């Protein structure tokens, strides 16, 4: 029903499911939180962000109580809550929720988990809406630098002396990387987002170069190196 935009019918079913789960499982069961979250998402799709927010907050409280404050599902709920607040212009709360989610994902799943990079992109997007370009750029740079270190085990400036005839970096065994190992969709998204930031600042040449790097990222591991070198050069000139 939700996918068909039959929101009234979907809402009726979810409210029925919520009542059943609360009665049979108790008000603080994770299944209740799941239904609350689904109902909040439904309200969000109808642009009823104010009505969705308390449902999302209650789902968060249940998951914190049942799973503990540092569980990845808590971070996922924080992401949803941040988005609802962002649509209401509550940017101070947005920043708090996203930063907490990043901290949970980093500690529970590790700094290279895709959820860390995705949530940093979400926070950067919120900064962009506030025209906080410096803060957004730093987050994008953090994501790309971490992806580069995961890929090559070195920062871009350390790679200049270890390239083969084709310009590609060697690994420890002397083999050339044929494909990129980092989470390419996230890297591509981050490059495109940073390109948008530069375009808003009137840095069109840098934006075009990053878009080119984004289009090459899946097949060319050097694209990420080129992007980071550009960012470093661009920062020194700005």
TrEMBL record:
It holds the Pfam family TPR_10. It is found in: Cytoplasm, Cytoskeleton. Keywords: Coiled coil, Cytoplasm, Cytoskeleton, Microtubule, Motor protein, Repeat, TPR repeat. GO terms for cellular component: cytoplasm; kinesin complex; microtubule. PROSITE patterns: KINESIN_LIGHT. Signal peptide: none annotated. Its main location: cytoplasm. It comes from the Eukaryota. Oligomeric complex composed of two heavy chains and two light chains. This is Kinesin light chain. It comes from Adineta ricciae. The lineage of its organism: Eukaryota, Metazoa, Spiralia, Gnathifera, Rotifera.
